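Fig. S4 source data, part A: sequence.
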Amino acid sequence: MTSTDHVQPTGAVKGYRPERTLRLSVELRRQFTRRRTLGVYLLMAALPLVLIAALKLGANEEAESNSRINLVDVATSSGLNFTLFVLFATTGFFLVVVYALFFGDAVATEAQWGSLRYALATPVPRMRLLRQKWFAALVQSVAALLTLVVVAVVAGGLAFGFDDIQTPVGVTLDQGDGMVRLAGMLGYLAVHLLVVGALAFWFSTITDAPLAAVGGAVFTMVVFAILDQVEQLGSIRDWFPTAEEFAWTDLLQTPIDSGDMFRGVIQSLVYVAIFTALGFRHFARRDVTS
């Protein structure tokens, strides 16, 4: 028996299988047990309760006698209406921060701790490690979004009743139809928010500071949101990453106009593909030995 009998033709040790390293279940277990993750989910669960308290305390005779339909008035019509209000209130910034946090923290934290080089020395193939962290961040982000919505539906239903959806224009949608449309809204948001997630993930492969990756992605989206208010930019605004961020509200129309949503999904997937590809490209060339 020679000293090379335990070596495969590829140069790897006999029995080594790249696909067995850093399984997704292992990475998810690591991420979901972190205090950061638990804190985010507690915040997601607490936010609807805070909003319910605010709506309850803010109710007065003047608001009740106001015949003009507005978002707050509709929010107290039912649990589903309250859920839609929560989504509308959190889409522009809060959910952006959550997605940026999970994706931007994925690689930069490991690099900051110095554990990234040890993970690669296991050895875990670079692209596999990055892929597993990307999927883990996606699962965490979607789970956070679902946590927010489930708590909003249940708590909102207990507070305001499990009635039909009353749209801001006075159209009523029954519970069954409302739940189906709500699922479509969540699907759209999960895809659209991936833009900031993929951007933060790219930044995470560039820097060793998680705060820089998260903050950089959020700052970029805020800048585009501000520029989107400049009407002089014209049709250029349609190509911003923040374009069509509220297109999911079109599902409240009857009949549904899905044109903006379709454009939003396609455009978001293009941005996600570009930012993710840039992240993988940079990480493949990155020196992680220090």
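Fig. S4 source data, part B ends here. The beta strands are 165-166, 172-173.
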